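Figure-free illustration: sequence to structure, shown twice.
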Amino acid sequence: MKNILVVGSAGQIGSELTLALRDIYGGGHVVAGVRKTRPSEKLVETGPCEVVDALDTDALVSVVDKYKIDGIINMAAILSGTGEKNPMLAWDVNMNGLINILELARERRMKQVLVPSSIAVFGPTTPVDNTPQETILKPTTIYGVTKVAGELLGDYYVKKYGLDVRGLRYPGIISHETLPGGGTTDYAVAIYYDAIRQKRFTCFVDDYTRLPMMYMPDCLKATIDLMGADFDKLSHHCDYNVGAMDFTVADMVVSIKKHIPDFEITYEPDYRQEIADSWPNSVDDSAARQDWGWKPDYDLDAMTADMLKAIGEKHEKSLI
């Protein structure tokens, strides 16, 4: 690919992925597509930024033609927590936005489309431990429903039109750069911020909650590695399981207390507890490891140390 459009560049993953891709392809070759959220200074300073709504076909076409885009990454999505509050919005953005992008890519004969999926495709009837690559997909959230449909739609475009569509099932993503926006795993980011700011945290899921998680550097690595993999060596297209670590909230507390011994936590589970309980404890990502050499770099304690250091430095600067 020569010129890439990242739709949803102001989001948690999109913001950091755009910058990482600019380091690889050059700032002028990676366009940050943002909707309403004001992009960060880094995004503005390092390359082109354009107002792009996945539901606005005319805007998409205009940006694609202006920059001669030959690859699109679709990071625009309504996540699980927000989606349960507004299911029809989630369907509209997650499905109609995706179809718009796939159709545009097909018409322009683009080289590649990357469409992330999620562990939300799984449900309470899916095996929870070491969840297989090929397994039952019966999610209980509208976000999960759209992600299952998105995987199937992407695979359809590969088979029907020969379009190179790829995707991976993200676990919970943890980052100190950009806050998440409405996902069930948001607690795994917020806990670090509150540990630094006030040494206490109120968690919206219970202490036993165990989910697959991934630190942002590994998330970027997995995404970029899949983008660069040989198409002919891929045994899957839009649904790769990727794992890095899995842990309970109680495990996070133990890890944080190694650095902040007086950290305290209370639990007030809400509607997101039921969502979390419907997702896997861990996933089998052997297909990704075999097909494109996936291997994570971070475990829980390494991530905790890095998160607390980075957030602590930000907090100190904000007090100056």
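We now fold a second protein in the same way, so the two outputs can be compared directly.
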Amino acid sequence: MIKRRHFLRSSAATLALPFLESVGFRKFATAAAPATPAKRMIFIAMGYGVTQETWFPDRQQTGRGFVLPPGLAPLARHKEDVTIVQGLSNRYSEDAHAGSTFWLSGANPHEGGAVFHNGISADQVAAAAFGKETRFASLQLNGSDKDLSGPGHGQGLSLAWDNRGKPIGGQNSPLAAFNRLFSAENISVENLRLRLAQKRSLLDTVLEEARDLQGRLAKNDLDKLDEYFQGIREIEVRLSKDEQWQSVPKPKSPLQAPPEGPLGREEIRLMYDLMAAALQTDSTRVITYRLPIANLLTSLGVKVAAHDMSHYNPGERMEASQRRDVANSELLAGLLDKLKGVPEANGSRLFDHTTVVFGSNISNVHNLTNCPTLITGGGASVKLGHHIVVSKDTPLCNVWLTLLRGSGLELERHGDSSGVVKELIA
């Protein structure tokens, strides 16, 4: 029978690994920029939603003729490159405290009678296609809030969920992200090879014992074992990629290492700097970021707790919510400045080939309809500078399908999508 120590160790290893749908990797010595700039995608979740009265544009002002509301006013210099979509929702959403868990997956949490179920997130669909030639297929970033999986964001280790609906972990501070991207390994290439060989040996042992057991299991156990085999295959793909990159030095960082400990506003600014640097060095082409709203409020001098802020009414709570919105827009405008300031090899800008989405599964309070959705960047061939109001109950996953197809992926559907958002297509 399978040795329990092998099973548990390997099973645990699968939980934090992204799904990389690639069969073999081309051998390469460097992450040289392609002649045609690569497509990139960034997904940023704000968790608690927005101040509905001052973040969404007037529903009567659609197309290019909309006025930026106060919550989006700091984005004025980027208005021609920012599109807001109203009317989106995830039909299976039922957890009013989960702004991120199903945001990118649109999954039915009770599929097949499960207590909790999730599906692959849109970023990991993109990573399977865009991540074959980069050191990191995707980069998962999180804020420093103590309970990022609590009210606001919901379950998960980041915004990312793999092909089996398992959560993928990430870096929780700017310094940790910097070290992952740019710091040299404190281990020789020879020892790296030895470590990879040991991991392969363990996988081979587990796989051999699992196959031996396969013929003696009932159907329910066979289904579980099939899922386990898939997890092993994912680890094998990851190990193959590690082997390709083990002798390739990490790129020189275009920025200095961040200090330890910044929280809230400065933390977010540094993470945005690192996101731009990660794309600039082609270390990855897919990034997710779960914003630290509680620490953002504290850094702004707001004394209202994040959960209380989201249950606002006129007065102190609403003012806190509005300050949060403005700060997020100011920081996002800074990220767009950076993306526009990085030239590509062909004379275009990094911004022109990067899709950036900013949003939440929660509108405000406990409302799970009209998910706030802001789209910018030129990576997905969609209309920018527009305000679009879609019909009621249009799946949020229709936007993900539109963006993924617009980025060159041939997909029939994603999550609960019912089609593309035609008004969004350029």
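Summary for the second example: Residues 1-30+185-248 form one domain.
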